[in-house]
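Worked example 2:
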Amino acid sequence: MASVEAASSLVNELEQSLESLPLDSEDTPVGQLFVPGSWRELLNLPIPGDNRPLQAGAGNTETVIIPPLDDGVSELDFTVVDEPLLEEEEVVAAPATVAAEAPAPVAESLMSNLVPINIHVPEDADIEVAELAINGYRLQTFNSGPYSYELDTNMLTEGMYKLTFTVSNTSGVVSAGSLDFEVILQTLAEDGPSTLAKSGRESRENVSGANRVLLIDGQESPFELAFSMTDGLRLIQPEEPVVTPAESVLDILRRPIHNLIPEPVWQSLTTPRPREASIVVLLMTLSLLPQGIFTLYWMMYSWNNPRAAEQDQAPREFAEPQLSFTALLPARHEEDVIKDTIMAVDRLDYPEELKEVLVLIRDDDEGTIAKAQEAIDELGKPNIRLVTFNTGPINKPHSLNIGLREATKDVVCVFDAEDEPHPELYNVINTVMLRDNADVVQSGVQLMNFRSTWFSALNVLEYFFWFKSGLKCFTRQFHVTPLGGNTVFFKKHWLEAIGGWDEACLTEDADVGIRLTLAGAKIQIVYDAEYATQEETPANVESFIKQRTRWCQGFYQVFFKGDWAKLPMFTQKMTAIYILLNSLMQAAIVLFLPLGAYIALTQRVPVPIALLSYFPIYLLLLQMITNLIGIREFTEAYGLHLPFLFRLRMAIVYYPYQLMMTVAAARAVYRLVSQNHAWEKTAHSNLHRQGQIVQGRA
């Protein structure tokens, strides 16, 4: 009856306690429960602060072994340690239902088995008493912080354990938190550590020499724990070590200009803008791909279409001379070359009565006039005349229009002041015009001094590919012919029909070609290395940039003039746009490299766009390879020696050469915008007159 009455009293007390518990209050922390001490004792629950130990045996030297959760052991086991503990040491443990004391300090010989447990609680926490236990066995009771304990791992064996930290505040409210961990046993064998695969009582036998490894979530971690009334007990994650990242390429490149660029500007330049970068890369790639592909197409046209190339070769047999020719030689400040050129034109093997040479010089150019007159006097032929003038703009098209008015023959042709035409050239043109009923014939022109400067070879190959392949492609495939500035032959009445050359245009040759196409003239291309007119490259970088600037600016003038838009076919219009604006597109490819490098170093774009962005670079490399192959074709065609490793030098200077043309294109845009149309003349010095011997037909 006494037990029934005690149970009834306990139930009543519990009901009263539960009725007073604010279960719906949001202020009640998770895990807290007010437990009256009277029925805690009846339920045999451990009471925080209760230090009454369950003695394991007074004065014995046995270490308590706390069984793991899955061991099934219901009572304390004792295992004798090989080395006895100090006499003053006392190690006790108790099940959760009975408070147990933590082991006494461990002997120095066992210090290696100690694992510190540190529990961090908030500074403002209301804690009257706290208790630390493993699997219900009390390790230590704390009346104040710090809450630290050194756990002797010899008390543990293989298996799962639960570390519990219980606190009670001044109001008697109890809160607890727990953390599961695993213990594995390792022994040091001769061949290295090995793990003991035992469980239960068997795992606790003969393991006094085993090393205990404590794992939290499968990882060996220090027992640095945090406890709060709301979150319970949790592991404090160790801070990641601060690793100083290795210097990027951008950091290395930044060093020389670090003091030149203000930090805000640098930050703005390096701020990630993946969307904008992707748009820029995509637009540039899609616009440059067609340009690069088409450039390779016309460069390789003659090699890919050998039959078409053969049709444009010079005839093997010449027709009887019928057409008469007037050669126009405009010159300004060409005293170094004009005499040799007059002599070369006079050597053209054609009946004298069908030839006429007009040397066109402005009357203020006394040096060139004197040299020209000297040549004329030496030859003593009435069909070679000096025509001087002082009217109009100082440029080539004005001189040509004066010569057109003075010409008396059927065909008008143009030679530059440094040209070296082939002696049979008139016979070639006479035959082609009669055979094909052509109104205009563009013959080949070739720069020769490919070893004079670092850029000469690439300049030479531009002419080689343009006249051997490009003009044929444009004329045959797309019916647009950008005529060259010399070695071009017009039936006089066609020039008169279109009003001659445009004196305001810096590329009068390209302009007259488009206008003659619109007028319906039949234009024919004839190229043969044997009959190509030979010229020289500019002597230095400054001369090259000025010459290329004039060409680019002239092409832009023709574009804005708009005659190309009157061409009837769409393919003609697109081809004309390519020819006139190609210098800008080529410059864009060159600028694409540093821009692409900047985006690659500072931005992140989607992988497909990043892969696509390499295509313009690949095309530029293919163009370079085509040039490296072309230099062999050129030297073989003209019987020249190609030095060993010469192509390696070409590869090294290829990009600087492209940069030089980019400068010329930018300069041309500036001159066009600023309305500066002055003619920048290219100086000549007879570098090409070295007696090259042409090896057969190209």
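Residues 17-61, 73-111, 197-206, 691-698 have pLDDT under 50 and may be disordered. Residues 570-602 form the longest helix (33 residues).
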